[in-house]
Amino acid sequence: MAATGSAVGLGNIWGFPTQTANNGGAAFVLMYVAFVCVLAYPALMAELVIGRHTRRNMVNALPSVAAKPLVKSIGSFAGLCGVIVSSLILAFYAIVAGWMMANILSSPASALGLPAYSSWLADFSVSRNLIFCLLFSILTASVVANGVRDGIERWSTRLMPTLILLIILLTSYVLTQEGAVRGLKVYLLPDFTHIFSPQLLISAMGQAFFSLSLGVGTMLIYGSYIREDENLPLVGALVAMADTGVALLAGLLIIPAMFVALAQGVQIYDINNALIAGPGLILQVLPLLFNSLGLAGMAIAVIFFSLMVIAALTSSISMLEVPVAFASEHFQLSRSKATWITGAIIFANSACIVFYFDFLFDAVVDITTKYSQPLLAAVLCIFAGWVLHRDRLLNEIRSGYNNVEFSWFWKIWPVYIRFVCPLLIIVLFIQSILTRLTA
Ligand code: TRP
C-alpha cells in the first residue's frame, strides 16, 4: 500500500500526459510501457530485494552487501547520490504540488465573486508558486516529523479509488465531445518512424523510473519494511501494474481533452506543428473541462485537485524519508529535527527554482529524472546482480515465494539485472548525450 502510494502521484497524472504530449503521443506511450516491463520492473525488484535483505537505507545497505573496500565506497557514494537526487526531485515536485493546492481554491474563489483571487490562484506567478510550495512543503514535513505516515497512507489508499473513478467518469464525458476522437488517435496510434528517436527513448525511460520512484532508495526503504512471508515478485508486479494503469488512464483523459480544447479554438500546436506541452499543460486543459460542466464542474474541480494533493503527499513523504532517514542516522539527530532541517534545505532549493523558473525547472527535472535516476538504478541492478551473492539473492526471494527457482521469474530476472538493465541504460544514456552534443 505504501509503495503504491509512493509510486502513484503527480508523475502519473501530471508527468505522464505532459511527456506524452511533448513526445508526440502514442509512440511515447508504447515505449513507456515497454520500459516499465523490461527495465523499471526488474530495477524495482532489485531495490525491494536489497531493501528486505539488508533492512537498511540505501547509504548503509549497498556497502553492507559488498566485500571489497572499493565496492563498499562505490555503494556509499551511490547511496549519497540517491539522497541528493531524492531531495532535488522533492524540490521541484513540491512546486507542482503547490499548483494543485492553489487550483483547489481557484474555482470556489470565482464562485464567491472574487475573480482577482481566483485568477491569482490559477495563474502562474512567483508569489503564488512560492506560497503554495511552502504550504505543501510544511504539510509534507509535518506528516514525516509526526510519524503519522501510516495513517496518511491508509487514508490515501481508501481515497485513490475515488480519484480513479473520477478520472474514468471525466474520460467518458470527454470522449463524447467534438475533437476527442482525433486525440484518441494521437494517444493510441503510434507513429513508428519516431519510436527510436533518442530523445523519446530517454524521456520514456526517465518517466518509467520516475513514476515507480526508482534509483534514489525510496523503494529500497519500503523493501526493508516488507515482511519475510510476502512474495516480493508479486508485490513488485502489483505496484508496477497499479502505477502504469493510473498513468495510462490519466493520459486517456488529458490527451483527448487537449483536442476537445482545440475544437473549441484553443491553440495546442506550436509553429513547428508539435503539441504545446509545458509543465502547465494539465492546468490549461482541465479547468476548461471543468468549466464546461457548469456548477457541478466546480465541485468536481475541488474534489479532483484535493485528491491530487493527497496522491502527491503520499509520494512526497516517501521522497523526504530518504534524506531524513540518512540525516537522523548519520548525524544522530532526532527524527523531528532531521525532518525540519532537511525540509528547510529542500524548500530553499524550491525557492531558487521558483525564482529562476524558466532557467532551472526543466533542467532540474531532466538532470534528476532522465539521467540520475536511470544511472543510479543501473548501480542498484549491478549491486543486486553482481555484488549480492546469488545464493543470498535466491534465498531472499524464496522467502514468501516457494519454488521460485523453477519459476520464469528466476530464469529471466537475474540475467536482466546483470546484463540487460545496466547495458540498456548505459547505451541509451550515451546515445542521448551524443545527440544533444551534435544537435
Ligand atoms: N513516483 C512518484 C510519482 O509518480 C514520485 C516519487 C515518489 C518519486 N518518490 C520518488 C520519484 C522517488 C523519484 C524518486 O509521482
Task: Offer a quick outline of the entry.
It is built from 18 helices and no strands.
What topology does this entry show?
Blueprint: H1 2-7, H2 10-22, H3 26-54, H4 58-65, H5 69-111, H6 115-122, H7 126-145, H8 149-175, H9 180-188, H10 198-211, H11 218-225, H12 232-263, H13 281-291, H14 294-330, H15 335-355, H16 357-387, H17 390-398, H18 408-438
Helix pairs in contact: 2-10, 2-12, 3-10, 3-11, 3-12, 3-16, 3-17, 3-18, 4-5, 5-6, 5-7, 5-14, 5-15, 5-16, 7-14, 7-15, 8-12, 8-14, 9-12, 10-16, 10-18, 12-13, 13-14, 14-15, 15-16, 16-18
Structural summary, described in words:
By secondary structure, the chain is an all-alpha fold. The protein has one domain: Up-down Bundle (Amino acid/polyamine transporter I). The protein is built from 18 helices and no strands. It is globular. Tryptophan binds next to helix 1, helix 2, helix 5, helix 10 and helix 14.
Give the distance, in angstroms, between the N- and C-terminal Cα atoms. Answer: 43 Å
Q: What is the C-alpha radius of gyration, as a whole number of Å?
A: 21 Å
CATH topology: Amino acid/polyamine transporter I
Task: Tell me, rounded to a whole number, the average pLDDT.
Answer: 93
Low-confidence stretches: none
Strand content: under 5%
CATH class category: Mainly Alpha
Number of strands: 0
Which secondary-structure class do the elements indicate?
mainly alpha
The arrangement of helices and strands along the chain is HHHHHHHHHHHHHHHHHH
Helical proportion, percent range: over 70%
Shape estimate: globular
Number of domains as seen in the coordinates: 1
